[in-house]
Amino acid sequence: MSNSITKGKVVGFSYHLKNSQGATLDQSDEPLLYLHGWQNIIPGLEKELEGLVENNSKQVVVSPEDGYGTYDESLVFQVPKAELPPEAELEIGMEFQTDTADGRMVLYLQEVREADVILNGNHPLAGETLHFDVTIKSIREATKEEIQHGHVHGPGGHHHH
User: Fold this and answer.
1) How far, in Å, CA of 13 to CA of 19, rounded?
2) What pTM, to 2 d.p., does this model score?
């Protein structure tokens, strides 16, 4: 019986991620481990890995809706520098957390200007159609503890904060 990817399996996969223009956005040769069935990875990818077995490779195209969301202009904010923590070393791409009516939100620093900065609440990959080239490296049963916690423990485990 082949060990295929189903809910409750811990899956290790390496991947190469490109955008629609073919530019590399991200890649990992070291396998990323995740617990299948708990939405630890973007839904569009998780759905497509279901049923694969070790050493399978698959090309998966994920629409923004199943990936990091569509791009929302209303999540772009212009903030006076005075409102930022004075000790913050401003680097493009750094994350700020802010509490909103809808809960905690992460804003990415998009642009630094003289008196203000542009913060963007869209994930950097929002609005992108994602092209994954995935190779399944390992599949194992999750431990009871992993199932209880809903994510992988131990080396290579992927933590979401």
Assistant:
1) 19
2) 0.78
